[in-house]
Write a structure and sequence with these properties.
The structure is a single chain. 38% of the residues lie in helices and 7% in strands. The protein binds calcium ion (2 copies). The site of one calcium ion has 6 residues, from α9.
């Protein structure tokens, strides 16, 4: 008797449960609003902890590469235009003419060995191709093939296959006018300090030690050099490996030789072409009067502080090439002034030989570029021929 009743009772209960919902039959107790409220009152809430999400790893912003020009010829043309408001060589501050003839008297430059090269501007890469090329596979491995099927590596190969290398090679921040002879002597050496104060180029303060493969620029150019290297690394990252010692040296040079007016203006002009600037240089607006006016007076004074200027070169500082009064006479018109006989036909010459001097040395294989020095050929993969 009892049993059937119990069964019926259970069956009824189950049906009821199914209809009302599990909660009514001893499952998880339903949380009524009242329930929740009472709980809230019961616990004077310790302010709900804001969920602290772990700081997301900041995504490195995609590198904005400069819009470099398409070819070396275009880059050199643009560099010449950019420097047309300040025709002074980067090292030694020699004035030069629109035809790229060095007015050696403006800086006391004396030829070391190559009379012809010492009269022409050559475009130098502050950071040489080797520095941002030699760690690349295109530089080390013969992964390129010429028309005859011969494999090669080095500069030529990197130009063909390595987009970043091409951009670095053509970056206008890194391209500066130099006395051709200095550019050839410096070759692709690193910059650093050298014992002693050898003067191989007259009053021009520039030392080269071929055995150490190092060049020492004058103090007033060190900041510009440092900022060029730091810009290249900032812009291309690992594309330009620098040792800790190099970084320390460049930071020190950057501090010791702050930017002058021309460097700031040059950066602005380069940025107008390439889209990005050197973050170490202020991007102030051009002066109200226009850049030319400022140019005419600031550069020389800034580049060649009086104290370093021996008496004989003094006049140069006051007369930037463009304005240049008679005494400085632009080289091409009056080459006679400095260089008597030797200047003869050779240097006037010939537009046709021009290319050599105007093209950065790295275009030539290292062996050719580095004068005799020590044949770096064996050690240097850049000599791909
Ligand atoms: Ca020295
Ligand atoms: Ca400087």
């Amino acid at each position: 008797m009892t049993f059937p009743y119990t069964m019926r009772h259970i069956a009824t209960s189950v049906a009821l449960c199914l209809w009302v919902g599990a909660a009514a039959c001893g499952g998880e107790p339903a949380k009524s609003d009242a329930d929740a409220e009472s709980k809230a009152k019961a616990k004077p809430k310790p302010a709900p902890e804001p969920v602290v999400e772990p700081e997301p790893e900041p995504e490195p912003p995609p590198k904005t590469l400069p819009k470099t020009l398409g070819s070396l010829e275009e880059a050199i043309e643009a560099a010449a235009e950019i420097h047309s408001q300040h025709r002074r060589t980067f090292y030694c501050n020699c004035a030069y003419t629109p035809q790229l003839r060095i007015a050696r008297g403006t800086c006391g430059y004396k030829t070391r060995a190559d009379e012809s090269l010492s009269k022409r501007v050559a475009w130098d890469r502050v950071v040489p191709n080797r520095a941002f090329g030699q760690h690349r596979s295109c530089w080390r491995e013969p992964i390129c093939k010429d028309d005859a099927g011969v494999a090669f590596s080095g500069v030529r190969c990197c130009r063909e296959v390595d987009e970043e290398f091409r951009a670095m090679e053509l970056d206008l921040q890194n391209l500066v006018p130099a006395v051709g002879e200095l550019q050839a002597d410096r070759s692709d050496f690193d910059f650093g300090e050298l014992e002693g104060e050898a003067r191989m180029y007259g009053a021009c303060d520039f030392e080269v030690d071929r055995s150490l493969r190092r060049a020492e620029p004058d103090e007033d150019t060190r900041g510009e050099i440092a900022r060029a290297y730091l810009y290249m690394q900032d812009t291309y990252g690992d594309g330009l490996p620098l040792s800790a010692a190099q970084k320390a040296q460049f930071e020190a040079w950057h501090e010791a030789d702050p930017p002058d007016a021309w460097e700031v203006q040059r950066n602005r002009r380069v940025a107008a072409v390439q889209g990005i600037s050197n973050s170490l240089l202020p991007m102030m607006a051009p002066p109200a009067g226009g850049e030319e006016e400022v140019e005419a007076e600031t550069p020389a004074a800034a580049k060649a502080p009086a104290e370093k200027a021996p008496a004989e070169k003094a006049p140069a500082e006051k007369a930037p090439a463009e304005k240049a009064p008679a005494e400085k006479a632009p080289a091409e018109k009056a080459p006679a002034e400095k260089a008597p006989a030797e200047k003869a036909p050779a240097e006037k010459a010939p537009a046709e030989k021009a290319p050599a001097a105007e093209v950065p040395a790295e275009d030539a294989p290292a062996a050719e570029k580095a004068p005799a020095a020590e044949a770096p050929a064996a050690a240097d993969p850049k000599t791909e021929g």
